[in-house]
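Obj: model holo form, ligand = guanosine-5'-diphosphate.
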Amino acid sequence: VDLRGWGEGNGLAAVLLFEGPRSFTGEDVAEVHLPNSPAMVRWAIDAMLAAGREGEGGAVRLAGPGEFSARAFFNGKMDLTEAEGIAATISAASETQLRAAASLREGDLHKWTVETAEKLANLLALVEAGIDFVDEEGVRFIDPAELRAGLQGLAEEMWAQLAQAVRIDRLDDLPTAVFVGKPNVGKSSLINALAGRERSIVSPVAGTTRDMLSVTMETAHGHVRLVDVPGEEMPSDELRAKMMAARGQALLDADLVVEVVAADQAAPGGGRERPTYAAPVMEVMNKADLLAEGCAPGREWGEWQVSARTGQGIETLREDIGEAVVRQEAASGGRLVLNQRHRALVRETRAVLVEAGELVVTFERHPELLAAELRRGLDVLGQITGTISPDEVLGRIFSTFCIGK
Ligand code: GDP
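Output (holo structure tokens):
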């Protein structure tokens, strides 16, 4: 296609050639730079397509969506997370999202995944070495305590990353604080007091439908969504099953869990195991006015003692919630940027490691069971970047132990 007539001669158009493999996709690439004139761009594209049709082989066509990134990925120029970073950059709707996308694009998650996979692959290599030497007395590559500690360390690291991660797909949603607690501790009243206005109450007839209510609260740190979830109960029918599923999702999405008890009720966890949440938890005691009146046993619980009725402590609680969730949102300092796909895979890998930890007891008799589990963990983790393959583990064994020399 002769572009000269359209301005190359007078500096309006430029063509840059990048020879593979040192190009974005790893292939030979030509870039045509034109002025931002829709008519001229359309003309150039049409001219190239026409030339392609007429020419030998006729191989000119428009690129499919994401095709450049896909080619770069398949040619090993970037991993999946970096390709996702490019997609996230293109669709970024705010500056915060743009910053988070840059972290993916620049390979922060890639680096973390490769390092974590390496730690796991090292444990696997030691376990597999044990399989090969199972008949030899006195040869031991790792003892069970070390193995257990290694697996636990990795699982904890994953949990910590999940709890602190910047969730790129939710960056433009308001940060969310989810309120949990027994019925009648005053969650609704507390949410109203914090939001500073009456919202329309979906009047709860005991034990029937109760939608999850949410209101927006203004704080000095920004807006926060407050969500009141129904109490946990056995899903005895379809409606309740749906409610419990929605409750579970709200808790997974929470940036902060506010656990509320009332001054005149027993503290939570009496005998029952306390649930763990992936988000930080704030312990709040409501109805503190009853303490002052001497109507409650005077037991104090949690760092915050407030009263939805008198307004005591509400202002402080509001700002503390704002600060807690806003700190969560700021992309900074060593925290990973994860999308939903990454979070699901990190959670799954962690679950596999916990299961592997339970196989440590039989490790010396059946190292192959543990090895299979660790391989599975490595496979799941490898799906994050789309790169690591179990073959790498073989290479690692040969290189570190010189088996079969
Ligand atoms: P929820 O079921 O946890 O949402 O509780 P509600 O907000 O419906 O409140 C339950 C009862 O506790 C209502 O009768 C409220 O008036 C009362 N209540 C809520 N907050 C306070 C408080 O700070 N002090 C006192 N004394 N009563 C409160």
